[in-house]
Amino acid sequence: MNNTALQLGLAVGIAACGAVLGAFPSTEEGFADGLNHLIAIGAVTALAGAAATTALLGARRHS
Hints:
Layout: H1 2-22, H2 28-61
Helix pairs in contact: 1-2
Keywords: Membrane, Transmembrane, Transmembrane helix
């Protein structure tokens, strides 16, 4: 199950990155803007995961 979830998550992540980059013009500036957006999306995703982990583990420790 874990291997399947890992492969699915990787495929969806790569597809999402391609969709974000595809939304910008095919120029050097467009590529740079797309990468800036991908970095922002990655940072927000990491922060959301950290917040969810903290909330779930915090609730578990206080029980």
